[in-house]
Specification:
The complex is a heterotrimer of chains A (about 375), B (about 280) and C (about 300).
Chain A: H1 4-18, H2 20-45, H3 47-72, H4 81-93, E1 95-96, E2 101-102, H5 105-124, H6 132-152, E3 173-174, E4 177-178, E5 183-185, E6 188-190, H7 192-215, H8 218-228, H9 230-235, H10 240-266, H11 276-289, H12 294-319, H13 325-343, H14 352-358, H15 366-370
Antiparallel strand pairs in A: 1-2, 3-4, 5-6
Helix pairs in contact in A: 2-3, 2-7, 3-7, 3-10, 3-11, 3-12, 4-5, 4-10, 5-10, 8-10, 11-12
Chain B: E1 16-25, E2 28-38, E3 43-47, H1 54-61, E4 69-74, E5 77-78, H2 84-90, E6 92-94, H3 107-114, H4 123-128, H5 131-151, H6 166-178, E7 184-188, H7 196-211, E8 215-219, H8 223-229, E9 232-237, E10 240-245, H9 247-250, H10 254-259
Parallel strand pairs in B: 3-8, 3-9, 6-7, 7-8
Antiparallel strand pairs in B: 1-2, 1-4, 4-5, 9-10
Helix pairs in contact in B: 3-5, 3-6, 5-6
Chain C: H1 2-35, H2 42-62, H3 69-96, H4 104-126, E1 131-132, E2 141-144, E3 147-150, H5 151-173, H6 175-185, H7 187-192, H8 197-223, E4 225-226, H9 230-245, H10 250-274, H11 284-298
Antiparallel strand pairs in C: 1-4, 2-3
Helix pairs in contact in C: 1-5, 1-6, 1-8, 1-9, 1-10, 2-3, 2-4, 2-8, 2-9, 3-8, 5-6, 5-8, 6-8, 9-10, 9-11, 10-11
Classes of the chains: A mainly alpha (about 375), B alpha/beta (about 280), C mainly alpha (about 300).
């Protein structure tokens, strides 16, 4: 089932896209908005919302990473936040008073991505032969294991500082300028959130670029083939093991970058930031936004950060203090997930391919007709 | 570009030796001491009643199953223990009895996936799109188009695989297998469900593929096709090989006739119906 | 020396824990056997059972009545079972049935969504503060082969085994049980034989939910409290138990549950000694995950499961 209203909107959008001048206007407007977003937001909604803007960008990076694993390769990873945690702790341990090591960000971010990628392959390796449901549970288990280790590796040797987490993590510095310092721009005072925005935006663009390039490549095709029919893919010469590990590694590396950025932005990290709930949130962003589609995933990330924040401000006066806004948010999340799966399972902005997969065709696959054993997807 | 264009570069002969192959599932002996030889450049048929173990043989040959006993040699090199994708790299490509296409990919994309094993672009290539990668992508696309035309479904290039008519889906599977530049093409019932004229065109296609230098191993029930196109056949029954030789000799073999329960192999053929 | 002294106690604790895991595992395995779906919401149903029962129990205790403790508990249990059965029925009807023909991913994500809804609903109803289990049950203790067993532990084990036996009889000896087994093999064929698969599937969910409710109350009694977060970890461990025994296999869920309980209990007891103090017993939650991973990598069909070969 599809929602006709959304489809009509998309049709209008597609027709409008044909108009060349319209395209340029839209892109120019987009560039302008992206370039001035923190100021636009700061002036209209307040500086707290600039921080939220930054978090949107962080989640976009995460969602794009998970999109590679879930959206491209079709591997349902429920423990993705573990790579975010690895990236964050890698940065935090090597750029804070904890061990008194202070490496610069241009070393730690790329290395963090690499370390996260290695974890991605490590955690992915046991799951390679597993079917969808089992894969989900095992990855969920891994996510929890990482969190439990982070919480408990503070005795007898204090590695991670346990539940207290890491404090006073170095902010990112360009030249002598620390991004967390308040600056003065044309007489307008900008907090650290403003500067970090531009760094995050740059990395979002890089990550988007990599994701799109991967999608339309030999590797991207191999991922789709594996998702469609893994046995056939292997029978056509694809080394499914390596290609799947590659998906885990690439996805994890994005998470690692996001983690490093988060650690320096927030200045403080603890295992409580990396819960199963967070993994599920990122998964929701990918699924609700539109699996496999970069634009859809970004939309999902934006919606799932903004809407709860808006609701929090809107709901509190309505329900009073006795109702936990977090619980309301979770409830709406869950309802949204179920509703989307029943009514629009490919997501709000699905990729063309995913739309085909979820469409209820009257044409039946020749495969499905043939045998009782086959095509159990 | 046409398939088999790499024939000139290929080493020696692509002959397959199977010796003493055994495969059990629980208590059931799917294959018992099967031995056969396929010569380079021939079209070799594997026939037998349903459940005789033909597809099991294919699955062992292509690495989906590991044999309990026995060996498989291609070109003198053992295929034992290799994974399916490694076997493709060695030069054996297959189609499936129940058609396993990538349903939501276009015909072109399906065949392009077949080129994966012979191409190399990795993550760096994908992201940087350097000259070598772009040239490789162009080549993949052209070869794929060529193969679609070659098997006769060029008009479906951008159609989704799941929307293709049944006969064209089978051809697409063949095109995809050809894209891997195989030495041996293993086809599992390519003519199933085809009418006489389609089967005739398939016969021409198979002969054309053989003319390019690719050896063909064929599982088929389709009598006329087997008689018309196979150089030699082997007959399996209950996992054992009961006959091997030229089609016209095998069809007169009393053991074979009995295996088909007195089926209409000899004398007048009842049209083009499947055996048994 | 130290090992053998503590061993019986660990075994007893493990048996108790394992019985609870087994009850919850049965729900997972029955649903998976019929629908090939991991019912993520099952752990939350267990939690709901515990919370509902405790709410009833604390309300009744507040009355200051002279009714014996275990009767109050039984009433609470009864209410919890009924409510959970209703919840199980509703989930299947509203969320899973429309997705029977959908790709696996959609059903899985829906299950996750349902589990989130349940947890959120519980948070809204009861907040995150734990509810304490009133001390109304007899606190007798027995000595057996070097271990101390409390009356509660004994009750848990006996009740669990009773329920498991009842389920076994139901599945193996009754008409509805035959229908369940047939539908698990192939819903289409069962349909052709005159069995209504929808009916059987509903029954499966309802039965599983009932067992989960009982398990939830047991956990609440054993931990002397229940809170809205207890469902996820318990659900995960119970699922591990189901996989360990062979998913889809009812006897497997029972065996898997007991084995997992014992392994966890032994592990928690000895891990300090084994790792020289590096890893403490708060790592015990990790055992279930490791067991799960080991099983899925080395013996994915579980202890009692059957090998399913993929035919090309």
């Amino acid at each position: 089932m599809t929602m006709p209203a959304i489809d009509r909107l998309l049709q209008h959008w597609q027709r409008w896209q044909q108009n060349r001048r319209a395209i340029w206007i839209v892109y120019a407007a987009l560039v302008f908005v992206l370039a001035t977003a923190p100021f636009l937001v700061g002036m209209s909604a307040g500086s707290a919302w600039v921080r939220i803007l930054d978090f949107i960008l962080l989640y976009v990076i995460l969602a794009l990473g998970l999109n590679i694993v879930v959206g491209y390769a079709g591997l349902l990873d429920l423990g993705y936040i573990a790579f975010y945690a690895v990236g964050a702790y890698f940065f935090g341990l090597l750029a804070s008073p904890h061990f008194d090591i202070h490496l610069p960000f241009w070393v730690l971010l790329p290395l963090g991505a690499v370390v996260a990628a290695m974890f991605g392959m490590l955690l992915g390796a046991p799951t390679l032969k597993l079917r969808g449901d089992y894969l989900a549970i095992v990855t969920l288990g891994f996510g929890e294991i990482i969190r439990i280790f982070l919480t408990n590796l503070n005795a007898p040797v204090n590695i991670t500082n346990g539940p207290q987490g890491l404090n006073m993590i170095d902010p990112i510095r360009f030249g002598g300028v620390s991004l967390s310092q308040t600056q003065s721009v044309f007489g307008f005072s900008t907090s650290g959130a403003y500067l970090y925005y531009y760094l995050f935006l740059a990395l979002v663009l890089v990550v988007m670029f990599v994701a799109i390039r991967l999608q339309n490549s030999r590797i991207g095709r191999a991922w789709v083939a594996i998702r469609e029919d893994e046995v056939a893919a292997e029978a056509m010469g694809i080394n499914t093991r390596n290609i799947k590990l590659l998906a885990f590694a690439m996805g994890a590396s994005f998470g690692g970058i996001g983690g490093g950025l988060y650690a320096s932005f927030q200045g403080f990290i603890s295992p409580e930031s990396f819960t199963l709930s967070e993994s599920i949130t990122v998964l929701c962003m990918v699924v609700l936004g539109g699996m496999g589609n970069v634009a859809g995933v970004i939309l999902g990330a934006v919606l799932l950060v903004v809407v709860p924040e808006v609701l929090r401000d809107a709901v509190r006066p309505l329900l009073g203090d006795s109702v936990d806004p977090n619980a309301v948010r979770m409830l709406l999340f869950g309802v949204a997930l179920v509703a989307i799966m029943i009514f629009r399972p490919a997501g709000l902005l699905p990729s063309v391919r995913r739309q085909r997969e979820f469409a209820s065709d009257n044409e039946v696959l020749a495969q499905e007709q043939a045998s009782l054993y086959d095509a159990r997807r | 570009m046409t398939p088999g264009a790499d024939t000139a570069k290929r080493p020696a002969s692509a002959w397959v030796t199977v010796s003493g192959l055994c495969k059990h599932f629980g208590g059931l002996a799917a294959l018992s001491d099967v031995s056969l030889t396929i010569n380079e450049g021939e079209i070799y048929g594997l026939i037998g009643p349903n459940g005789a173990g033909k597809t099991t043989f294919f699955n062992v040959l292509t690495g989906l199953y590991t044999p309990d006993l026995g060996d498989l040699l291609l070109n003198g090199q053992s295929l034992a223990g290799l994974k399916p994708n490694e076997i493709v790299a060695r030069g054996i490509a297959r189609t499936f009895q129940n058609i396993r296409l990538f349903a939501n990919m276009t015909a072109l994309e399906n065949v392009m996936v077949g080129r994966h094993v012979r191409t190399h672009a990795g993550v760096l290539g994908a992201v940087l799109r350097d000259r070598k990668t772009c040239a490789e992508e162009r080549d993949i696309r052209e070869r794929a188009r060529g193969l679609l035309d070659y098997v006769g479904i060029g008009r479906h290039t951008h159609a989704l695989a799941k929307h293709l008519p049944y006969g064209d889906q089978r051809r697409l599977e063949i095109a995809r297998a050809l894209a891997t530049d195989p030495l041996l093409l293993a086809l599992d019932e390519p003519a199933a469900g085809m009418n006489p004229s389609e089967a005739g065109k398939l016969q021409e296609l198979l002969q054309s593929i053989r003319a390019r230098g690719i050896t063909i191993l064929l599982i088929e029930h389709h009598v006329r096709l087997v008689m018309g196109v196979c150089d030699r056949v082997a007959v399996l029954d209950y996992g054992k090989k009961i006959a091997e030789g030229r089609p016209q000799d095998v069809r007169r073999d009393p053991t074979v006739i009995e295996a088909y329960l007195g089926g209409a192999l000899g004398g007048a053929e009842p049209g083009d119906g499947a055996i048994a | 020396m130290e090992i053998s002294a503590e061993l019986p106690q660990h075994l007893v604790n493990g048996l108790v824990l394992g019985s609870i895991y087994a009850l919850v595992a049965l729900g997972y395995t029955m649903v998976y056997g019929i629908l090939e779906l991991i019912n993520f919401a099952h752990g939350e149903i267990t939690m709901m059972g515990a919370m509902v029962a405790l709410a009833v129990i604390t309300a009744l205790v507040g009355e200051g009545s002279t009714v014996p403790g275990f009767v109050i508990v039984l009433v609470g249990l009864g209410v919890a079972v009924v409510i959970c059965m209703a919840l199980g029925f509703v989930i299947e009807r509203v969320a899973y049935r429309p997705l029977r023909r959908a790709p696996r991913l959609a059903a899985l994500i829906t299950a996750i969504g349902i589990s989130i809804i349940f947890q959120a609903a519980a948070l809204l109803i009861w907040s995150s503060k734990p509810i304490k289990f009133p001390k109304i049950l007899p606190e007798a203790q027995f000595e057996l082969a070097g271990a101390t067993i409390s009356a509660l532990q004994l009750a848990i084990v006996l009740l669990s085994f009773l329920l498991m036996a009842a389920l076994w009889v139901l599945v193996q000896r009754t008409r509805i049980g035959r229908a369940m087994r047939a539908t698990a093999q192939s819903p289409e064929l069962a349909g052709l034989m005159g069995i209504n698969p929808n009916y059987v599937i509903s029954i499966t969910f309802v039965l599983g939910a009932a067992l989960a409710a009982v398990a939830g109350v047991m956990v609440a009694a054993y931990d002397t409290q229940a809170d809205t977060y207890m469902g996820s970890l318990l659900g995960l461990k119970a699922f591990t138990a189901a996989v360990l025994g062979g998913i889809g296999n009812i006897a497997g869920a029972m065996v898997g549950g007991i084995v997992l309980g014992v392994v966890e209990s032994l592990g928690a007891g000895y891990i300090g000694g084994l790792t020289g103090g590096f890893l403490g017993s708060h790592y015990k939650d990790v055992f279930a995950f490791f067991v799960l991973i080991l099983v899925l990598v080395f013996r994915p069909t579980g202890l009692l499961g059957e090998r399913v070969a993929e035919r090309a």
